Amino acid sequence: MRRSALMTLVLLSACQNQVSFKNIPLPLKATPEAPTLVPTPIPTPEPTPIRVEIQESFEFGYGSQQKSFRQDRFDENKTSLIFEMTDPLGRWISTLNKSDVLPIENGVVIQNFELKSEGAATGTKLDLVFALDTTGSLSIEGTINTVKATIKDFVESLKVKNISARLCLVTYKDVVDRACQSFVEDNPQTPENENLNSFLNDVLRIKPDGGEQPKENHLGALVAAAKLTPWGVGHQRMIVLFGEGGFWVKPIDQDEREAWAAPTYPETLDAIKKSQAQVFVIHPKWHGFSSDYFDLPGIPRYSNGRYFDLRELEKGKITVNAIYDAIRDQMKWTHVLSFVAEQNPGINGALPLSQRHIDLRFAMSVQNFRVLQIDTNFPNGHGLPKSEFDLASSQQSPVRFVRVWVNGHEVSKSQFAVGGQILRFISPPPPDALITAEFELGSLVENISFVPVIVRTKLPKNLKITVNGVRLSPNQFFLRPIPNQLVALVEWDPQLFSESDPLKIRELKKVQVSLEYHFDKMP
After folding, report:
1. What is the pLDDT of residues 413-471, one digit of tens each?
2. Is 452 exposed, middle or buried (0-12, 13-18, 19+ CB in 10 A)?
3. Distance from C-alpha of 223 to C-alpha of 369, rounded to nearest angstrom
4. Which of 43, 47, 135, 312 is most buried, judged by most C-beta within 10 A?
5. Helix or strand or coil: residue 405?
6. What pairing do the DSSP bridges indicate for beta strands 306-309 and 246-247?
7. 215-216 vs 246-247, strand pairing mode
8. Following DSSP, what letter does each residue of 12-27 receive, concatenated?
9. What span, in angstroms and rounded, lies between the C-alpha atoms of 490 and 493?
């Protein structure tokens, strides 16, 4: 028992020693305690403030209104007067310049108008037939060349005088070789007149031959021209006869073989009368042409035409121009004056034609004057162009500071007025005009979109404020500190945004604000 108890004790002691070695530190050798050291405090330097430079910009919008309108569109009221007139000698007036005419409508002088003159009846033309003797007698002493040159010069004068004529040719000897079957027509206003040139070439190609007898069938040629020519309905009709020698006539020459196709003199007058053609004769002196035919009138006089002595033409005693002028004097001339009502201030195209009284005054002596026709594309007038335009009927604020443009051109303030929200023109803009209005609703300050302008310190140094390029003085703004914050709000002198607009906000269309200042900030 004791041995067992002793062994148990030894084992327990051994176990205890193992634990103490692991978990209990061994005793140290005792040393003297060291003295405690207290450090000497180092003084902290004062912080240096940092300078902060500020440059900032702000922009306020300027809220002017803009509105566009389109004037009602009307077709232009075009009016034309067709008239005829003669001089104190009873001759048709063929040449009329704009300076010769003063048109007036309802007491207002028409300033802008066009004027043109036309030969023959209104809207028609002159039908001109040349009846040409092609016998050999015309070749004596070059007479045929004179005739050809006369026709050529005459046709050229028609082109120069801008006369719209249809031309045709009849040739004859003892019989009619060629009747007029169709007219040559051309527009003298075009650069090239190919048809008239073709007609002249046809004339110049004629070579006279035959005709040994002393007479030719001049009367038969006149009857053929009068009866067989396809005259235009309503056209003025003229026959110009060139001939040499006397004419065959029945019953005086009915026993002559060459006169078998000749008519009687009364038959000739009757054919001319029914055709309503005027006859102009260029021929040596011969009764019936240069004078009456026994107790019957000469053909030129009977038809209200003229006679010219071929011999005087050959000798140069009369000219082609004289022949042309004589024919022109017998030519019925009409004149057309046209204008657009809207192009003449004071002329009201909205009126019906019955209320438009148009008068013509002339700077020349006029014997007979007659208006044949007045035409307009608006016989009942058209609607009136608008003079008033609604700018902002749905808004309560008054319309102010209005600028107006018509077709891109600014209108003087004397040409319009504004009442409430209505824009009124003194004279209505022209048809289809684009009208643009820029305006403010209410006062200037009501049209500015303000934004807060913040200064990043309550105590800015050397604060400079520039608005739209203008440096403000200190009494034109002040700073209002914002509670519990290190910033301040810029507030403005109301006079900066008064109606006089010292900052030119309307011109610049904005409010540009620039700030420049500095402040000290602790690090």
Report:
1. 999 999 888 999 999 898 889 999 999 888 899 899 999 999 999 889 999 999 999 99
2. exposed
3. 35
4. 135
5. strand
6. unpaired
7. parallel
8. HHHHHHHHHHHHSPPP
9. 10
